Amino acid sequence: MLVIIDHPLIKTKLTTMRNKDTSHAEFRSNLNEIASLMVYEILRDYQTKSIDVTTPIDYQFHGETLDKEIFIVPILRAGLGMVEGILNLVPQARVGHIGIYRDEQDFSAKEYYYKIPNVSKDSYILVVDPMLATGVSASDAINKLVKEGFNNIKLVCLVGVQQGVKLIQSNFPNVDIYLASLDEKLNENNYIVPGLGDAGDRLFGTKGK
Ligand code: URA
């Protein structure tokens, strides 16, 4: 399933991020804010279980808590820019990391880091990366998790294109994909058009003046 999360706040913040004159500080805060807004919507599908708490006036309250553990897996490095925004809403979430970089010559995905929490295989997993371009990095990341037996995976990106969406859907029909925008196409360097440039560089201020 592909879901484009349509919200005026997401649209306006994403427009700020697309602007080439937006500073890395502003890019970063907007990325985290959009991640929060998206996750607020995505978590509607998650189930809760009952939990009893005692209120300060000694009342036994039958409340609710998420029925499973949740963990976030940012694809390094740009995915890191979404973690804080998600943790603001789900502070109990654990964070795994998958390091994948794009080979500049053949655009293949190369893995250099993998560290995932030791939790139940049916935990809720949010794989996060702002850009879903060719889909190769996200596909590799999800493949590692599936091979380990995790079965409850959602992919959360800001901007994607059909090519990446199709790759994930054909490799992992059970993985839901969430985007803030489905953009037009990839250019000859596999950048998303109109896109927002190199998300990692813009997030960390590693290019330009
Ligand atoms: N990764 C990016 O950071 N930007 C793109 O446009 C595509 C992949």
Automatic annotation (TrEMBL):
UniProt cofactor(s): Mg(2+)
CDD domains the record matches: PRTases_typeI
Catalytic activity: UMP + diphosphate = 5-phospho-alpha-D-ribose 1-diphosphate + uracil
Single GO BP term: uracil salvage
EC number: 2.4.2.9
Activity regulation remarks: Allosterically activated by GTP.
Function summary: Catalyzes the conversion of uracil and 5-phospho-alpha-D-ribose 1-diphosphate (PRPP) to UMP and diphosphate.
Name by which UniProt lists this protein: Uracil phosphoribosyltransferase
Species of origin: Metamycoplasma cloacale
